[in-house]
Amino acid sequence: MKKRIRGIILVLAGFAIALFGALALRRAGTNIPPHLPTTQIVTDGPYRYSRNPLYLALTLIYAGVGLIADDLWILVLLPPLLLLIHWGVIAREERYLEAKFGETYRQYKEKVRRW
Q1: DSSP code per residue over the chain
Q2: Residue whose C-alpha is closest to residue 3's, from 72, 55, 58, 54
Q3: What local confidence, expressed as pLDDT, does residue 1 receive?
Q4: How far from 59 is each of 12, 38, 63, 71, 98, CA to CA, in Å?
Q5: CA of 53: how far to CAs of 3, 8, 11, 14, 30, in Å?
Q6: What is the structure's pLDDT at 115?
Q7: What pLDDT is stored for residue 57 in this prediction?
Q8: Average pLDDT over every residue of 15-24
């Protein structure tokens, strides 16, 4: 039972972070889907604390579902999934953002942690 309560808390926290992150992107007028071009660097809302709050939110939801389902395999697969996201998505996004926004993005990277 405690696992399920923790899982529910993680899922709710993940949805809250995702909602606030999406609202910050929408307020800034930039695209939310990662396959669309970024029009500006967003530094408010959850982006003050994490450069990737939407991926953090998805990670919390994933881990929460694993706890709710009481499925060890879901949790065992989380580290490889995070490595895949890091190298397959985030590293590419960071190269793109640095090429597009230059010093502005480099300064943001220095101030705000990735996760």
Answers
A1: -HHHHHHHHHHHHHHHHHHHHHHHHHHHT---STTSPP-S---SGGGGT-S-HHHHHHHHHHHHHHHHHT-HHHHHTHHHHHHHHIIIIIHHHHHHHHHHHTHHHHHHHHHS---
A2: 72
A3: 74
A4: 12, 22, 6, 15, 24
A5: 24, 19, 14, 9, 15
A6: 87
A7: 98
A8: 98
- For the record, the structure tokens of 32 come out as 């939310």
Q: CA-to-CA distance for 86 and 23, rounded, in angstroms? A: 23
- Inter-residue long-range contacts of 30-39, CB under 8 Å, 24+ positions, other chains counted: 34/89, 34/93, 38/96, 38/97, 38/100
